[in-house]
Design goal:
Length: about 100
């Protein structure tokens, strides 16, 4: 399982650990990931996603999983999140047509 956020696409970053004597050694900055169950209001289902805590705050700020996925770009979403986004879009089209 990769250390990548399903919603934002955030990955580990590489940098330097700098000691008091200014010696630089490589280190990794890992994203703060957690497994979260988010509910889609349009589909009426729950989804388990591995997302960063910052993305969780963004989902709450935008008004839920549906609003977040509709506004996000396809390039930054994981294949699982893209599938959910397309299901939501299809369900909304059916609801508007009916």
């Amino acid at each position: 399982m990769s250390r990548r956020c399903d919603l934002t696409g955030r990955r580990p970053q590489v940098g330097h650990k700098v000691s008091h004597s200014n010696i630089k050694t490589k280190r990794r900055f890992l994203p703060n990931l957690g497994v979260v169950t988010l509910t889609s209001e349009t589909l009426g289902r729950s989804f388990r996603l591995r997302i960063t805590r910052n993305a969780l705050r963004s989902v709450d700020h935008r008004g839920g999983l549906d609003a977040y996925l509709i506004k996000s770009r396809d390039e930054e979403l994981s294949p699982e999140a893209l599938r959910i986004k397309y299901e939501i879009a299809k369900a909304r089209e059916v609801a508007v047509a009916a």
